[in-house]
C-alpha cells in the first residue's frame, strides 16, 4: 500500500477477497498466534442502551504479518426493518511503524468469509481425509458461507442438514445443489450417524447435539458460540473429543468450551490452539476413530488479516478509494 488512507467498500471486498485468500490469511494468523507472534487485545462489548444495540471492539497486533488495528461494530436488531444487516462492522488498520490510519474496510462480508475460513482451516487440518458426508446444523446467514468453504476441503458427496427452524433449510439446499452436492434435511440422530464432518452455526443457548449422536472419527467445528451463555453441543462431546480452538482464553470464557470447563468435564490444558497443528508442533488427529472438535470463537486478528488482504488487493487492482487524512 502506498501513502494515504485506503477505503474499501463492502462491494469491493466481495469483488477482491475470495475464499482461498481468506483461508490463507486465517491459517497464517492462527499459526502466528500459536507462535506468540500475534495476540488479541481484550474485547470490548457493551449494550449501549440505544436502539437495543450491542457495540464493541475486537483488536490486536500481528508482528509477523505487521497487521495492527481493530474491528468495530456490533448488533442492531432493528436494522432488518430498515433494509440493513443487523450485524454491522468496519475494520480500521493502522501502520505499525507510525500509528497512522492506513485503511478503512467494510467488515460485514469479511466477517462471514473469515468465520467460514476458520472452520475450513480446521477441516483441512483435522478431518479424516476420506470424509464424504458434511453435516450442517444451522441455516442462517453464515451457513451458506460455511458450506461453500467446507466443500473445498474434502471430496464431500452429500450434505445432511438440521435446523431448529426447518423452513430455513431449502435456501441452504440451493447452495448445496449449486456445489453439485446431494442435500437432505434429516433429524439429529441421522445427522450424527451419517456425517463425517459437522459444522454447527446457530444462535443456540442449549445443546443441539448430544454425545450419543456423534460417531467415532467425526470432526466437529462449533462456530456459533461466541458469547457467554451460548451453547451448541453437549459438553460430554468435548470430554470425549480432542479439542482445538482459535484462542484458548476465548474458548474457555465465551466459546463452546465454556460449559465443559465450568462443569469440570475438561480443563483448560486439554485444549490446543489450532495454530500448533498448523505449525507442526501438535500432530492433530492421531487415528481414524478419534473425535476432533474445533471451538471457533472468532478473534479480532482474523478480521484484521482478511481486511489487510482486502486493502492490498483493492489497492493493487485500483478498486480502492484513496484519500489524504
Ligand atoms: P442468523 O440469525 O442468520 O441465523 C441464526 C441461526 O441460528 C439459524 O440457523 C436459526 O435457525 C438458529 N437459531 C436462532 N435462534 C435459535 C435458538 N434460540 N436456538 C437454536 N438455534 C437458533 O445468524 P448467523 O449470522 O448465521 O450467525 C449464526 C451464529 O454464528 C450466531 O450465534 C453468531 O453470533 C455466530 N457467529 C460466530 C462467529 C465466529 O467467529 N465464531 C462469527 C459470526 C457469527
Automatic annotation (TrEMBL):
SUPFAM superfamilies: NAD(P)-binding Rossmann-fold domains. One of its GO terms (cellular component) is cytoplasm. This is Ornithine cyclodeaminase family protein. InterPro entries: BhcD-like, NAD(P)-bd_dom_sf, ODC_Mu_crystall, ODC_N. It comes from the Bacteria. It comes from Rhodophyticola porphyridii. Pfam families: OCD_Mu_crystall.
